[in-house]
Amino acid sequence: VDENCYEAQTKAVGRAIEQRDNVKECVFISKEEAIESFEEKYEGDELFQNLDPEILRDRYAVFVDDLSIAGQTAQDIKDNVDGVAKVRVDEDISGGLITLRNVAGVVCVALITILLLVSVFIISNTIKLTTFDRREEIAIMRMVGATNGFIRWPFVYEGLLLGLFSAVIAFGLQWGLYAAVAQGIANSDSLQILNVVPFTRIWQFVALVFLGTGILVGVGGSLTAIRRFLRV
Question: Is the whole model's pTM more than 0.85, yes or no?
Fold first, then answer.
């Protein structure tokens, strides 16, 4: 923010930035807060300690919706918002993050697909072994008039339990892994630019996804396995 701006003008700058396209959030950082952050970053270097906050300007940290056009958003703020002295955006870093996000997305989709297929295969074969051991009992039940639903239900229930237990275990492992990665990023000097969302803010959504997937895979695998044994 221009150092000649009064407090009211500085607040007006923030409101104007928030109204620009692609701006998700605009956080005010005072000179004092900026100097404290700077000194913490270089805590071991006496040269950068006890500095006068007046050497810095009040500023805003701007968060965008679409990182790929962050440069255009920065230029828009610089050209169209009065009271802005300087805008900095690290497009090289943002471009690298976009590439990393895209690669990670492709890898995650591939892994999820593979793991789903493996899960269906394991549960399906588990149910197949169970039904194979009881094939004569199933055949007798079919011949005396038992309905497919009556015969199928115990195996579907077993698949459902397998899916639920697997989802609970996987959710716990996911939470632990996420916490470990987040802690590693927080302790890394080179990854301070990354801000990891706390798992406590997303655990409910993740839990629903795990439970839904576990039920779907468990029941689906059971229905697939029991089908051939109902043909007598």
Answer: no
